[in-house]
Design goal:
This protein is an alpha+beta fold. The protein has one domain (about 70-240). Helices cover about 55% and strands about 15% of the residues. The protein has 4 helices and 5 strands, in the order ααααβββββ. Strands 1, 2, 3, 4 and 5 form a 5-stranded antiparallel beta sheet that branches. Helix 1 packs across helix 2. The longest helix has about 90 residues, at about 1-95. The protein starts with a helix and ends with a strand.
Length: about 240
């Protein structure tokens, strides 16, 4: 009888042990599933955030590049203005070519270049409002950019000369169009860029040695022909700020 009791106790203990083992397995499975779920959720969240950040970066860049396109259009237009002023100043100096030395010739050309550049710029303000007061400088600038950019184009309100061709730097060999601002929005992303345009004097090839003063019309105009000059090189950005 004693032995049977002991056996029954052993059987009960074995059963209890089996029940405990089964519970541990379930707990282990639950923990593993929970861990995998948390890991998968984290991976999906990180992947989603990464995708969102990449899309944000892409749309921000698109907004920026399109805003920059408008500023490049203004730069190209200024290069045309530089070419026109350079041609006119060059032709004026050729008339006095034989009577001037190299230094005087270039000094006269530089002076006339800046004068003509500013005169032409101011004339554009008058041409946009015939018979009335000259328009604001920003209206001149808006003529050079495509329609989608015009509403966002402005000049620095804090600077009274913003948008004009400021000749106060001519002594240093350049002029400035100050405070051009462009704000452009695309797909809810906005870019604002502020910049100045620095205009320097085109370096021309006068065709013969600059110090020569004995040129005469009999030498022929081909003796004074200048080489091709890339005018865009003489218009550059300054104080460029992106927000």
């Amino acid at each position: 009888m004693i032995n049977n009791g002991v056996c029954m106790k052993k059987v009960k203990r074995k059963n209890i042990c089996k029940l405990n083992n089964q519970g541990s397995a379930i707990v282990t499975v639950i923990v593993v599933v929970a861990f995998i779920t948390i890991l998968a959720t984290t991976i999906l969240y990180v992947s989603g955030m990464n995708y969102y950040m990449k899309m944000t970066d892409l749309k921000t860049k698109q907004s920026f590049y399109e805003a920059e396109t408008a500023l490049e259009e203004i730069k190209a237009a200024l290069a045309v203005e530089v070419a026109a002023a350079s041609d006119e100043a060059y032709e004026e100096i050729l008339v006095k070519y034989a009577a001037t030395d190299g230094f005087t010739r270039y000094s006269l050309y530089e002076t006339r270049f800046f004068e003509i550049l500013r005169e032409n710029w101011e004339q554009k303000r008058a041409d946009l409002n015939p018979g009335g007061d000259p328009v604001a400088y920003v209206e001149v600038l808006r003529q050079y950019v495509e329609t989608p950019y015009r509403a966002g184009l402005a000049v620095d309100a804090a600077n009274p000369t913003a948008g004009s061709i400021d000749l106060s730097y001519v002594a240093d060999g350049y002029a400035i169009v100050k405070g051009v601002q462009l704000t452009y929005s695309k797909d809810g992303y906005t870019t604002m860029i502020t910049t100045d345009y620095v205009i320097t004097v085109p370096e021309l090839n006068w065709g013969i040695d600059a110090a020569k003063v004995d040129w005469t019309p009999e030498d022929g105009a081909e003796a004074l022909d200048r080489e091709e000059v890339e005018m865009a090189e003489y218009v550059n950005y300054s104080n460029w700020i992106k927000k």
